[in-house]
Amino acid sequence: MLSFTIGGQLIEVEWFAASSGSAAGGTGLNGPAILLLDGADGLTFADGYRLAARTIAASGYHVAFLLYLDRTGDRRVAYSRLRQDYPLWAATVRDAVSWLASQPSVDSNRLGIVGVSLGAALAFETAASDLRIKAIVDYSGPLPEGYAMRQPRLPRTLILHGASDPVVPVSQAQAIERLLKELGTDYEVKIYSGQGHGFTGAAQFDSAARIASFLDQHLGPDQA
């Protein structure tokens, strides 16, 4: 377990080192790295996020599972405080990018964010002002409130969403796609028929394969 401090608050980071000898890391000492941002369920679904982190790490990426809810002392989001806490979490993620870029095993030119639900919104929030983020995987996430009106800068983005998502409606994925088109940003999108907020069965395996391919294309050895 690693950590850094922001606003006097200790933020823990679970570190999953890239598998040695994998293609994505290239031949240099430093390799690409991913911030993994959980959804509002936070640590109540920690084992699922850790499985995702290990899967990405096996493909050759250092993965930092950022426990950004530490900033507000929560294990999961308190919805009654979501609006007031959101800026604190966003600031925490911004500082986490700098922390990640400074790690001795990380190539600071190959940074990405995989965000789930609320974590995806925080990924978009961060990338709008941080050119170091070269790729985003948006897993069932919404656009931050008022985001499109800001005409933000966004990196290449992979959108994955369930057509029957009852938590974050698929209209959010469609809004993200429209924004990316307007910005002229390269993107990929896959809407899974019959899937909700999180994927099961064949969709789960397909999404994992798409994530691996997307990261290899934009953060892999050819981008070093």
From TrEMBL:
Q: Which Pfam families match?
A: DLH
Query: GO molecular function terms here?
Result: hydrolase activity
Under the heading InterPro entries, the entry gives: AB_hydrolase_fold, Dienelactn_hydro, Dienelactone_hydrolase-like
Q: Where is the Dienelactone hydrolase domain?
A: 30-203
Transmembrane stretches in the record are none
Sorted alphabetically, which SUPFAM superfamilies does this protein's record hold?
Answer: alpha/beta-Hydrolases (SSF53474)
Quote the PANTHER family the UniProt record gives. ALPHA_BETA-HYDROLASES SUPERFAMILY PROTEIN (PTHR46623:SF6), CARBOXYMETHYLENEBUTENOLIDASE-RELATED (PTHR46623)
What this protein is called in its record is Dienelactone hydrolase domain-containing protein
Q: Which organism is it from?
A: Methylobacterium oxalidis
